[in-house]
Design goal:
With 94 residues, the protein is mainly β. It is built from one helix and five strands.
């Protein structure tokens, strides 16, 4: 059993200041597995080169923050119920 809240995505360190965000939904040899590459810019900032086209930021305060953003984006529960619009009869003209 995993302690990770969403084991679908992983942040894997590949160099001293570089990480990959991986999607375990795809096989290891599948190029779609890599979601983005995270690069350390300075002590308080990282930059992400997104491999997938997802509408999120490219700069974050940490690699973990970028991973959390991917998890939020792909959450299935982010959809809300439709807002019900009251139906009124048409106004009568005099």
């Amino acid at each position: 059993m995993s302690d990770v809240p969403d084991a679908r995505f992983e942040l894997r360190k590949v160099a001293e200041r570089e990480w990959l965000i991986l999607d375990h939904r795809y096989a290891e040899n599948d190029p779609r597995r890599t979601v983005g590459c995270v690069y350390h810019v300075d002590d308080s900032e990282v930059e992400v080169m997104w491999i997938r086209e997802i509408p999120v930021a490219i700069r974050y305060m940490s690699a973990i923050e970028a991973l959390d953003e991917v998890r939020r984006f792909y959450e299935t529960s982010r959809a809300t119920r439709p807002i019900e619009i009251p139906h009124l009869p048409p106004l009568l003209s005099k």
